[in-house]
Predict the structure.
Amino acid sequence: MDLLAQYVMNGVMLGLMYALVALGFTLFFGVLNVIQFAHGDVLTAGAFAGLAGYAVAVHAGVEAALPQLLTVALAATLSMALLGAVLGRALVLPLKGAPALNVLLATLMGGTALRECIRLFYPGGSQPQRFPALLPSASWSLGRFTVRLDNLLMLATGVGLILGLSLVLQRTRLGLAIRAVAQDEETARTMGIDFRRVVLLTFAVGSALAAFAGVMNGLYYNEVNFGSGLLLGVIGFSAAVLGGLGNLSGALLGGFLFAGLQTLGAVAMPFASAYKDVFAFGMVILLLAWRPTGLIGERLGERV
Amino acid sequence: MSDAPAWLRSALAALTLAAPSGLLLYGFLSAELEGRVGLVLAAGALAVAGAWRTGWLGRLVRMAGERALVTAFTLLAGGLVAVFHDDPFVLLLMARAFIVLVACLGLHVQLADAGVPNFAGAAFFGVGGYTAAMLGRGALPHPLVLLAGGAVAAAAGSLLLLPLLRTRGHYAALITIAFGLLFRTFFEVNESLGGPQGLKLAGLEILGFRFNDDRRVLGVEVSGYAGYCLAAVAMVLLALVLVRRLERSWLGLALDAVRLDETAAACFGIEVARWKIAAFTLGNALIGVAGGLSAMMVGFIAPNNFSFQESLVLVSILLLGGLGNVAGLAVASLIVVWLPEKLQPIQEFRYLLFAALVVMVLVLRPTGLVPRALRRPFGSPAA
């Protein structure tokens, strides 16, 4: 029982990370109908930006953990918000109207470039980098089940971010504009919404979420690697697609579902836990065969 | 020249195209120092751009016609093999480019003809390679082993048929991406297939002719890779003839219709699912055969050789060359395979440069280097 609880806890942490990435994918898809596949590498870049922020803070003589943590979080999210907007401006907007495949490939390659930049130009970037443990490390044990305070804090912050995002989308003028653009670009334009600005802001917001997921990933594993973004990106994309692209609750559902599948794969096949990704991706394919537009998918009639 | 017989004109045009390209390729392949590589590249780019701008390139290509061009390509490849007969590195490079071209022709049938996305090209390539590794040890003749590689790759692809037929666009793309990752992880953790270390392969052997051995032909030392290179050229020719025949036939018309508008195609009685299945399966078979030959040539196969990155490289070649254009495909696979190897000093930066190059092409020239040629209506004059 306690072991099961441990699995559930790990699954929830992973699910939150995946959901944060998936939210970005689904936001971008909502406003522009494109897949921004550099998203996973934005996540890695966010983690590395946070690491750089930490180095600067240490260099400047900041000793306490809280200011350090704030520096890391701010450095990661702000720089990635900027980078996300730049990527949107340079890679995605110019390709508006091009075949979907072109955008997919352009952003994938943009992500590759980003990843290679980290590997080549970040000091020691080709090796896994140790991520400082900035959160309090208290923990409570219940048999073999351990709750760690740092995990709870991350969980709370992540959930808070998601709630904040949905509040922004539902209650603010920016959120209204984003939803309007997502629903119908042309009508939104005629209503006086600055399309470019909304798109770029959406890219900034989504990328900041990815940066947060990157920092979370670093704090959770105490390590960041230049290549880890690729798999996380694909998983986030799978989660977004599984839930149904352009649907926020779908992204959340997809993220936790994918983590659940991975955990299930590891629990159900303890003799072969290495196969957990095989199992999870196989299930994704099966689920899509069952619901071709995602679980909470858009239902489109076809107009000829 | 206008009153010369048609075959002479086409032969002359093909020769005019082949001679400078042969010279350029020779210069590029034999260049050792970065300076010379750069010089040859600049000269090549200038020549191509000049020929393009003045319209000569298009005119010559049209005048030569497809058959003469394919013949010229064969002669050119054969000539280069003869010239570099004792240089294993260059021969290996050439063979790899040709094998990649075959795999890309498979992708071309799927993506450019039928519009079925496949982001797991490297996985199917690997399936062919692993099949060759498992069957190559047995008594089965090696040409059959290669075909079996194609068959197994096609069979593996058939696992994806149902999900692929039910989904579209990004959803379909995700299915192939997930499959590629799944397959790679599977090979990595599966101990009976060598795990992450991979498997060793026996070299190709046809009718007692062992491709791995260096030998003396007419008193000249010939590297073993020359045989592989010729085998790869033969494979390119077979695939090329197959794909072009397919495209020019009514089958190709049906595939075009499916790609351009599924609903309209269905309205005209074209069975969309059948053509998608046919294209996907044929494409995977081609990729698998290419993978088998590649694995036999290298003598070694490991999961790392068919990562998601490699699948991306294959799709990039398609888009770089210009989706739907076989000539562009050939040029793009040469560029993508050779350039990083020849620019040794930038080895470290090659993925970065490659990614930047693809992004630039996609943003500045979305149709690729050579855009898709329009299908000529029946009965219209050639050119």
Q: What stands out?
A: Chain A has a mean pLDDT of 86. Chain A touches chain B through 46 residues (CB under 8 Å). The beta strands of chain A are 129-130, 139-142, 145-148, 223-224.
